[in-house]
Amino acid sequence: MRVIASTVFTLGVTLATSAGAQAAPKAYPQAEKQVLELSKQAIALRSVAGEGNQTQQVAELFRKELLANGWDAKDIEIVSHNDTAYLIATWPGSDASLKPLVVSAHMDVVEARAADWERDPFTPVVENGYLYGRGASDTKFEAVLAMESMIELRKQGFKPRRTLVIAYSGDEETSMATSKLIAERLKNAELVLNVDGSSGTLSEKTGKPAFWSWGGAEKTYVDYQIEVTNPGGHSSAPRTENAIVQLSEVLERIGHYHFKPELNDITRAYWVEASKLEPDATLAGAMRAFAANPKDEAALKVLRANPSMVGRTGTTCVPTMLAGGHAQNALPQRATANINCRIFPGHTREEIMAELEKVAATPAAKFSDVTGDASTMSPASPMRADFVAAIRKAVTAAWGPIPIIPSQASGASDSMWYRALGVPSYSASASMMKDSDEFAHGLNERLPLLNIRPGLTYYISLYQDLAGK
């Protein structure tokens, strides 16, 4: 999934190259050619959960590429798990005392049916400067780009001090079982670069880089079920207690409730930096005011009225599904609703459910956590100076001196499993795209190929700075 949402705020930015022209990123002809070719081969493999899942074949494709470019067979492992698989490939560093740098992505994709698309989703097509196909933006292309950058660096004779590990999961879009397994195996890592999706935004007007964002935190995805039960009876003899009425009153209270507004280092930096690019003066002012004081009611009123902003102010919970009754002429014996929450880092599922129970103020409404094991609470990663400096250098080398904005995602990605184990993980892919080209999980998914050359420059710079020192 694309964990950095460039629609976090609505930018009419045309400032993309306001800092002046930059030197073009270095060309890597062979690597550039291979990025496109291998991306097409990966997209052609239908790595979708269920019968016929070809995620293992994607892993084998990547293994073959690594073996052909300097990796030893003993340093590449493909582990089957249920109907999928995960890949761990190691480039040993020269200093065994240093913890490894992990490059994380996923090889599986969301289901796509050919009948719904303009093109077959698993037949990659290059057209008008775009690569089309399921996984083009989420996230086979980026997985290949990160891997080919490492291959290019190895060809140049680079000797990493810190071990580099490619860790690609096989079910990020569904159960995340392999994501958890990988994180547990690599819990001794120094830092994780999660390259899932696209981090940069291109101007809709000029097509040039507008800004770039890295993610250092994400909210916890949780689903709660509310259930109200009654004895029921004939509809001609209404009773004081009616499960549907009781549940509707609970939902109204929850729908109007606001959780405590909050900040962490990541979101505070986001509000400050994003406000500098926001063309709406009222909204920009509210963003700055909130960063200075999250209890500012005037600022909160503005931000909570904006769908792209409200989720950044704290925990949010919203009713998403509703069911009740068993017959048109009977009093309902049962009514249920699903409440979907995105919990701000630092709060547990139990804590938020208890708060919702207080808001409901209805003993007959029974709450339960129905999320399952596909989500976990994770703290925000620190604003590490070495990471921030390496990112600034890499982005500038690839795209020029553009604005860089830290951000917090609404969840969920592979990063949360690492963070839950105390390993800093950052969403920091190389690619740029326009908001209007964002079709991850949707029809006619695509990614502009102009990302290949600067993407190689970006990753090579990051690997050198974070693994070479």
Description:
- With 469 residues, this protein is an alpha/beta fold.
- The chain folds into two domains: 6-218 and 380-467, Zn peptidases (Aminopeptidase, 3-Layer(aba) Sandwich), CATH 3.40.630; 223-369, 2-Layer Sandwich (Alpha-Beta Plaits), CATH 3.30.70.360.
- Helices cover 32% and strands 21% of the residues.
- It has helices spanning 29-43, 55-67, 140-155, 177-185, 243-255, 265-275, 281-292, 297-304, 307-310, 349-360, 385-399, 415-420, 452-467; strands spanning 76-81, 84-91, 101-106, 125-127, 130-132, 164-169, 191-194, 200-202, 209-218, 220-229, 233-234, 316-324, 330-331, 334-343, 366-369, 404-409, 425-427, 432-433, 446-448.
- The two termini are 31 Å apart.
- Keywords: Hydrolase, Metal-binding, Protease, Signal, Zinc.
Low-confidence stretches: 1-20
* Overall shape: globular
- The helix content, as a percent range, equals 25-40%
Kindly provide the name of the CATH class of the largest domain: Alpha Beta
Strand content: 15-25%
- Topology, number of strands: 19
Largest sheet: 6 strands, mixed
Structural class: alpha/beta
What's the total helix number? 13
CATH architecture type of the largest domain: 3-Layer(aba) Sandwich
**How many domains?**
2
The CATH superfamily of the largest domain turns out to be Zn peptidases
User: How are the strands ordered across the major sheet?
Assistant: 1-2-6-3-7-17
Radius of gyration: 24 Å
End-to-end separation? 31 Å
Give the integer mean of the pLDDT values.
93
CATH T-level topology of the largest domain? Aminopeptidase
Oligomer: single chain
